[in-house]
Amino acid sequence: MVQNILEVNGINKAFSGNYVLKNVSFDIKEGEVHTLIGENGAGKSTLMKIIGGIYSKDSGTVVYDGANIDFTSPIEAMNNGISIVHQELSLAENISVAQNIFCHREPKNKMGFIQWEKLYQQANSIFEQMGVDIDPRQEAGNISVAQQQLVEIGKALSMNSRVIIMDEPTSSLSDKEVEYLYKIIKNLKKNNVAIVFISHKLKEVFEVSDRITVLRDGEIIDTMNTSDTTQEDIIHKMVGRHLDDLYPQKSKKIGEVILEVENLTSSGVFENINFNLKKGEILGMAGLVGAGRTEIARGMIGADPIDSGSITLNGKIVSIKNCRQAIAHGIGYVTEDRKLLGLFQTMSVRWNIVSASLKKYGTALGFIRNDSIDSSSKEFVSLMDIRPQNDELNVINLSGGNQQKALMAKWLCSNPSVLIVDEPTRGVDVGAKSHIHNYLRRLADQGIGVIVISSEQPEVLGLCDRVLVVSDGVITRELDNNSNDLTQEEIMKYATGKGL
Amino acid sequence: MQREKVYNMKNTIISIYRKVVRKLGLHNLALIVVLLVLIVAMTIRSPYFFTFANFEVIFSGFVLEAIMAIGMTFVILSGGIDLSVSSVLPLSAILVGFLLKQGMPIGIAILVTLVVAMLIGFFNAFLKIVLNVHPFIATLATMLTFRGLALAVSKGENLSGFPEIFTNIGQGYFLNIPFPIWIFVILIFSMGYLLKNHSYFQQVYFIGYNPHAALVSGMKVNRFFLFVFGFSSLLAGLAGILAAAQYGAAHNSYGIGSELKVITAVAIGGTSMVRGGTGSMFGTMLGITFMAILSNAFMMSGISTYWQDIVTGVMLLLAILLAESLKVKRSANITLEINPA
Amino acid sequence: MGSISIKTATEKKKNKRQSLLHTREASLIIVILIVIIAMSILKTEAFLSLNNFEAMFNGMVFDLFTAAGLTLALILWGIDLSVGSVLALTSVITAMALRAGVSIPISICLGLGTSVACGAINGYLISRFKIAPFIVTLAMYSIARGAAVVLTSGYYLSGLPDGFVALGRGTVLSVPIPVLAAVIILAALGILMKKHNFFHQMYFVGNNPKASELSGINTRAVIMTGYIISSLLAGVAAIFMSSRLAMGFSGFGLLAEQRAIAAAVIGGASFSGGEGSIQGAVLGVFLLALINNGFVLLNGSPNWQQAVSGIILLVAVGVDAYRSSKRRKG
Fold first, then answer.
1. Which of A260, A297, B237, C239 has minimal Cβ neighbours within 10 Å of its Cβ?
2. How far is Cα of residue A415 from the mean position of the Cα atoms in its chain?
């Protein structure tokens, strides 16, 4: 009878009043590969960080190897045998692979000097355990990303981890490297290491895991043996929810094409992006985090360089080499990272609102027309219902929802004919969310083309007239509101791969 | 047959090259080549160049900066910088001189001065750790303050008349090599060895490259910064003591402009200021050699040493630009931090 | 959620006035007044004399230019350590041109052209190659000073034409020309920073360069402009210094950076960018000049001047770091 190495019971966790995990319970057996799957925001990342000692839980218990534990730091968790291999690798590139594995726990003599031969030996034996062949003497910066990931796994093993949590381990791997990873995982299992595999790539999940647990909106939906379920079943469990949020009515009148994107390519990031946008419609870009949607948008507005492709606005091909030109041509991009890239946190709401339209508020000689700014600022504050209404407040003092509204106001002020919004309601409360949705629909009705990038399926379905599903830098599917295929399942199907 | 031989030779040369690059690093290799070319060129110009006596002069003229460069290497590796060394030097020279003139035993005078220097380094670290001041601002401010203190305390006067045993440290020889150079050689080899082989010192590569990850891995990052800045100031203090011993006098104008030379030597050696965790003591050794030869070349040719200031400034910029372009863009695993709530 | 309040025009003006009292400039004016009152009581005859005030204003006028320049660099989230050296180099080039018989206007242009070139190099390396401003301007600090000394071998360059010297020593309605120039130029700059789009963008760029790029601001042009103006102001100071003292000298502007940084930071500029003003810098220079004056009149040892100056900078730096972290927390 295989023992449970880790048991999680009734975990609850909330961030500033928002419940992220509700009564989560599941278990992991020794030597099994257990996949945690769910959409973005389902709570996988939070759950994993609680197990790994990065976050603390509000309530519930974690039982590890038979004992109740409450790790207060990641190093404590690691010392006890639970390691996380994060998506962002954190190796020190200028020192050896072996040192990165042991990370300041190198074998040393009494005086503190590193015993190099012993170090390399130990590193080699760990690699042997994994079935990997990497030279531990070389600098960590000289190996491929896939190999670096293996070094991180080696690091976990060096601490005698019994549970290794892998967070989206295959996101930067080629197909061949993924196959290689499967082999390594098999070897780890042989050594009785349990692996929590966090991924949204169903094909891989079914290849490598023993059991699958589905999380949705912070709750465990089901845990099943991989052999007892199918990909459709998983998708259904991932998304099966009642869409009881009220969304504004879909478009009544869709006009001619105002934007055409042809063969947009940035090698290694996205390829041959082709789509168009019609007047009056809200076009959605669905997909999972890391699919490349933000990169596509940034390529369109000139924030990142592209290799090839063209953009046609109202029948004319436009050249967009930087954001200035994009704004001049009437394309606005509302970034997904409002805190760091979107707003000037320690400047007032007023200045933020006009920050993308500064030229408009200057006289011919360039002098600032403060009265104009005053009235525009007031106008947008009330239009977007930003609270508190004092536009002299620094943006940093606003709540998340109001900051998002301020960010939207900034781009509306630039008078765009095409507005791309990236994750418009992330971290935003229900009231503000609804307001933003209604406003986006109003914009579309006024003839402004709206593209919504969102990882929230209900939002995509509720708000958009047409949806492009993006996966791994390519558009895998186009779904229409008029046909009957605009469903969460269809989106998830094409977001997790090129169809089943 | 001939073609095969040539082909084999080519392959062995390439594999030797690869091995050397792996062991030394591309940057260091390039630097060694440049140095060799420079030395050869200088020797052709004047055979006197490649003599023991001349090399003694070359290194003697740069030994104080060289000692400070050892400490600066650690600071820059850890991701910071220390501009205050050029002020700790004169302050230490004046302090040790003052203590000696008060009749304090030499050993104690030196010890006290070193401790004071170290405390200044701790203060720099304090500004960073507690008040979150960026090291360049913090050490700029302390540099200006302590140079002012050096002036104030010495009243601008030259302090001299030190006991002979003391000045011997600065002016004496052992096996035909001046004591200060011995001190430098011992220091750089031991610190270089420690940096490469001791677990505590190797931390700097982790902390410099990714301080947050280092913290999460359990390294005591703040304590390490205390060590790094304390050590840099300590060596600057040592340099000041040696200056007082060498010249038999202490003046508040010592060390002006040395911070730029020290930083440039370290930068030439490949220790990057753009991202911590890159560099080596070996590289610094090469950088010191380069700067020492250059410094000497200026002196020999009678060109104003202020030309040296110009050239040093230009070289610092070039060193940074070149070091960045030599480095192949490594796997930049920088993803946008996405806030959960 | 906040209550809905509609502010009338008069209410808004009242709020502005109230917040004005809390500004950095207001606090500085209060401190300045306190120091003036204290000095007036302690050393009435010495302090409250025309000679003293004249000397003080004449001494601080050059710092006004360099502090303003530093303010721009700080607003841009950078720093300019080269202002003193650029001042020296400009002084030397101008003097050399004058002594070679070049006409006064052209000599001045050559001098100012030099400072513009230095600023352009700084700005280019910083904005295009993204090398840290302190490294770039530290290198320029050494290069410019070195060039100045090399060109003159350290000697004074005297024998400058009377027309040129009149610039620095002459008066208009009994106001020294340099002071007048400072008032005009800095007032203009202050207005531009507040009221002109392109200059005002410096606040955005220094606050958040990436967001500025995305907002369509030409960050490269803005940064170049900032550093060019900073060096240009140092150059203007050099022209007046050279003309008043009737010489070009490579030793001008020593430690100018220290006073300029302290004045700028006291005046409200921050090392974390996006903050600061010309008027604040002017007040900062004034306050520092007053403190210095007080120091001298109270028979403070001149040997301690630099140390005191350094300590003031340290305190300013510490306070700025504290305020920055508070600001980031909102």
1. A260
2. 29
